[in-house]
UniProtKB/TrEMBL annotation:
The keyword Transferase applies. Keywords: Transferase. InterPro entries: EryCIII-like_C, UDP_glucos_trans. Signal peptide: none annotated. GO terms for molecular function: hexosyltransferase activity; UDP-glycosyltransferase activity. Residues 327-428 form the Erythromycin biosynthesis protein CIII-like C-terminal domain. This is Related to N-glycosyltransferase.
Length: 449
């Protein structure tokens, strides 16, 4: 009896490290397990994608953006970014306006597979869930349909639920009767604030002959795909008593799947050996934010006099430096970039602006967090860190040096944070993210909903 042919995998990712790198990690592992893969994202990622053995196809038009042309293609917010407005603006332009270009890019790939490369072969799409270019097909538009679509949840779960506040505002979970009523009222307000986005999306979908959406885009992203694989553990998400049938938790990517530095900083032994047994504090603002005065500088300043601490700052991008007039404190070490997996095993507390990847990596290493972020999904990360008992929610993206110091001292002095971090690390270790993804592929190929 011959072995059934594996499906062809088509990976789709919105440009940006937080989207591309996790999808790339999944693709790399599945390729090592014998799957053939095509990967579409921005042209800038070509070498990185081809290095894992995938066939690379660039996105077209304005979907092929990067940090260099980002501000040319997408207008900045026209007012100070509150949490909800910031999110709606980003979704409208980055995710919404690129739908036609993403859609055509994917359809052209599918046509090529159908006509020339592998006619009759099943194709499974695996994508970060903000890749909206396949929504028209999922809504019923004409075109080539894959055997299944798997969305990867790379942010806090945006799905509505009793006691769950509207996504994007970072409000606390409240399942009490009063809280449920309050949240329902806030959902009505949310729909009004996002009306421009909703109308715009429905207009785009109408051009494909489908729509309007029967639920808010936050929910549609989760419910419409064949599988929605939330890349965290249940204890880091608010309970949803009636989840959609395709929702699964996978745990986070295991260590070693975000690359390593070619050469460690000259001061690395200060961390790895730590002869004086200092408490190590790690601070970063991720890869997209270079305004270091928001979090990195307040952390370095606030902890400058703490001789029992070693503060490590990662600036998030190759070649980045702090401003020339800032004198780095004696107890601080600064580098342009340090992979989380290499540093976090030594870290006692992680100060972050709330990137989801960093959040999950901290949990994987049993590291408590202090989160200071208000843009995009970052307040939702902060709210979940607080709700899970994993750390402190600063409720601002620009804390004072004094506030950072107090938060660090609180986390280090109260053992409950480290204890909770260890519990969540243990739970995370029970999940096999790649095994769950592969199981979903096999189920969809077998016709299992």
């Amino acid at each position: 009896m011959s072995t059934p042919q594996k499906p062809l995998l088509l990976f789709c990712a919105t440009p940006g490290d937080g989207h591309v790198l996790p999808v790339r990690a999944v693709a790399q592992t599945l390729i090592s397990r014998g799957y053939e893969a095509i990967f579409t994202t921005n042209s800038e990622s070509k070498a990185s994608i081809e290095a894992i053995g995938a066939t690379f196809v660039p996105l077209t038009g304005r979907a092929d953006f990067n940090m260099a042309n980002f501000h040319t293609l997408f207008p900045p917010p026209d007012r100070a970014p509150g949490a909800a407005y910031s999110l709606a603006h980003a979704m409208k332009w980055i995710f919404g306006s690129t739908i036609p270009y993403q859609h055509e890019s994917v359809q052209e790939i599918l046509r090529s597979i159908q006509q020339r490369q592998a006619p009759g072969r099943k194709v499974i799409i695996i994508q970060d869930y903000t890749f909206w270019g396949n929504l028209p097909i999922l809504l019923g538009a004409k075109g080539i349909k894959p055997a299944g679509v798997i969305n990867l949840g790379l942010t806090p779960l945006p799905l509505k639920g009793p006691g769950v506040p509207p996504f994007g505002m970072g409000l606390p979970y409240d399942p009490s009767p009063k809280g449920i009523v309050k949240n329902e009222a806030m959902y009505a307000g949310r729909d009004e604030r996002f009306a421009e986005l909703t109308d715009g999306l429905n207009g785009i979908f109408a051009n494909f002959g489908v729509g309007p959406m029967k639920e808010h885009i936050f929910d549609l992203q989760v419910t419409i795909s064949d599988r929605f694989l939330q890349m965290c553990i249940p204890s880091l998400e608010y309970p949803r008593p009636n989840p959609p049938p395709g929702l699964r938790f996978t745990g986070a990517l295991p260590g070693g799947h975000r690359g390593v530095t070619k050469e460690k900083p000259s001061w690395w032994e200060d961390v790895a050996v730590n002869a004086e047994k200092k408490r190590i504090v790690f601070v970063t603002q991720g890869t997209a934010t270079a305004q270091y005065e928001k979090l990195i500088l307040p952390t370095l300043k606030g902890l400058a006099g703490c001789e029992d601490m070693l503060v490590v700052a990662a600036l998030g991008r190759e070649g980045a430096v702090l401003r020339s007039d800032f004198k780095v404190p004696k107890n601080s070490r600064v580098s342009d970039f340090i992979p989380y997996d290499e540093l976090l095993p030594y870290v006692d507390v992680f100060v972050t602006n709330g990137g989801y990847g960093g959040f999950q990596h901290a949990v994987s290493h049993g590291t408590p967090l202090i989160v200071a972020g208000v843009a995009a999904d970052k307040p939702e990360v902060a709210a979940r860190v607080e709700w899970a008992g994993l750390g402190v929610n600063m409720r601002t993206e620009s804390p004072t040096p004094k506030a950072v110091k107090e938060a660090v001292e609180k986390v280090l002095s109260e053992g409950r944070y480290k204890q909770r971090a260890r519990e969540l690390e243990e739970e995370m270790g029970k999940y096999d993210v790649f095994g769950i993804v592969e199981e979903s592929i096999k189920e969809l190929c077998a016709g299992s909903v």
